[in-house]
Amino acid sequence: MAQLSARTRLASPVDIAIHGEYRRTPETRFTGRITEDGAFTARPFRYHVYGGWFCPWTHRVAITRELAGLHDVVTMSYVDDRRDARGWAFRELHGPDPVNGFTLLRQAYEATEENFDGHVAVPMLWDRFSSRVVSTDAAGIGIDLATRFRHLAYTPVNTYPEALRDEIERLDRWIGPAVNHGVTAARHDPAARSALLEAFELLDGRLARSGFLVGGVLTEADVRLWVTLIRFDAGPNADRAINPGLHVYPHLSRYTHRLYELPAFRDTTRFESFSA
What we know:
Layout: H1 16-19, E1 47-51, H2 56-67, E2 75-78, H3 106-112, E3 124-127, E4 132-135, H4 138-147, H5 165-180, H6 182-185, H7 190-209, H8 220-232, H9 250-260, H10 263-266
Parallel strand pairs: 1-2
Antiparallel strand pairs: 1-3, 3-4
Helix pairs in contact: 2-4, 2-8, 5-8, 7-9
């Protein structure tokens, strides 16, 4: 059978007039985990991450994948930066789907669940062996990449050490709502803005005493915070509607720039996508 060309495997351009706007409510319907003896086990080249350069949750997974030494073990590709009612798609900007040749990411969900009618989300972990979606839970995907593939990895960084996991998750219960989820609302909601800036103050003080958030080492806590910090002045605060800029917190700003110098952070960052 003749192979389809890369151009043939690209979706048609975004067209709101024809297809309408995307209006699905975000949800996490797929929450499979990588385990030692379950349906999804750690194997080289078994899994693929579908992501979006614009998406901070994808960015977390991408950074962890690099730090975990999995660049050549778990593959990754990116959907187009824009969508219509069809959901995320593969277009020329970031290339075709290298795994299944899908033109729309929805096709992966439909291959997993008959008559799928839910949210087409990124990041999404795909299993080549069973041709199905494993998970759309970014936190779970990140933890599994950090912990389940270490025997297959090349010089991995342990970003989720067992002794620090409780503190990482405790911080996330605070930083998640106030910073990661609150940063967009802070543009228009005084309460969200107050919570965000108070969190920045506290984090600035914390980073004055240590170069990292937990245990003096680079962990998932840093990855989760950093993807919001690097977007702050280029995205939600681009017009300085929230504050004069991240630079007013010197330790937080220095920390952001220092982590950007690490290849795992720098090479997974695409500033032009932040306003997509």
